[in-house]
What does this fold into?
Amino acid sequence: MSTWCFVAFLIWGCTAVDGLVNEHSAVQLTTTKGYYPTERMTANTTYGESALPFDCGNNSDSCMDICGFCHDLYQGPTMTCLSMLFSQSCLNNFESAMVSLNSTDWCIWSKVRGLYSNLSHCTERNSDCLLIPWPNQLVKETFVDIHYRFFKDCPSEELSDPPPFIVFALVITPICLIPAMVVLVVLKTKNGDGSS
It folds into this structure.
């Protein structure tokens, strides 16, 4: 349980570092949030004695925290780390918000649009931080899973087959008209006057 709390705090960048980033450095950061300094981390950038052996995106405040977390637990920006980030930060928020709604409201787009959009942005932000292309197979599986869990009973607005009596009327009409037209043509030509 304490590990999940640590992960949640780590992802949201709630830790604060006071003092020097590196004892050999002359720069002092007094209230730097998160796991790593906020500049773009590369293989040549160090934090104390450790270095990130991979590039890290810099599109959000928590990007360095995400990269540092994946580096410490998974030694890099792996799909396993991305999956864990999705489940801890994106899906937990989405699921708790969906559970707070009445289940009959799940099918009303105006009520779930914001939650769905937040989930999409969260998956994109985490993927971009780890420089993993978005969308990817994990994102597709995540959205298929939430559609199955929350939206499978929602009516779709796709075209459906008309009722059977309409299909019957549309099919039987040309079937009856064709023999009638053939009979008219034969009777007209049988009289031999062909001009009228």
Q: What stands out?
A: The chain has six helices and four strands. Confidence is low (pLDDT under 50) at residues 1-50. The beta strands are 16-20, 28-33, 46-47, 50-51. The radius of gyration is 31 Å.
